[in-house]
Amino acid sequence: MIAVGAQPFGYELSPGHTALVVIDMQRDFVEPGGFGASLGNDVSLLHTAIPPIAALLAAWRARGWPVLHTRECHRPDLSDCPPAKRERGDPTLRIGDPGPMGRLLIAGEAGADIIPALAPAPGEWVIDKPGKGMFWATGLHERLQAAGITHLLFTGVTTEVCVQTSMREANDRGYVCLIVEDATESYFPEFKRAALDMISAQGAIVGWRAPSSAVLSALDANAVSR
User: Fold this and answer.
1) pTM confidence score
2) Which terminus of the chain has a lower count of CB atoms within 10 Å, N or C?
3) Catalytic residue status for 24
């Protein structure tokens, strides 16, 4: 096990059995003209998470450890998008409407793609999910079990919605989870702070939290000691 300095206390990472999870780093959420912008959000606020995620991806790839990416998107006929999800609020564009990068949050459209800076490498898992959580209607739990994955490190956007939802789902299924603080972001900084506090409260009730520097330092220290 690799000890990572974390809150509320140390986290133990299991080499080869810990997947790096990159949640929804899609053009529709991160770039102008996508779904995030249609809701009136400043998408540039998410960009600070990109370099830490890239550094973690490089570390995982160098070790041959498992990586999975998620994309929130729906079938072209919207049969997996409940009306209550599509019709709520007052965005300038709704899920499925044509936008600058194709139909918003639709599988196969350019906007649903992961941004080039964090593009999946060959062999990495890409999970298309119709909900906020990565386990709903995806079969992911069974795949993780079959691959012997016991620990998950969470990154991506947005902290309080899809990242926190996926981490809570993972916690309920018995995975040992850590969220990487600077590798996740929100359109609302105060929501991010609250989500991180909720996740690690009461003795890591949902999971641990740590900056990417702590994770990378622990990996480097382990490599030197071997």
Assistant:
1) 0.96
2) C
3) yes
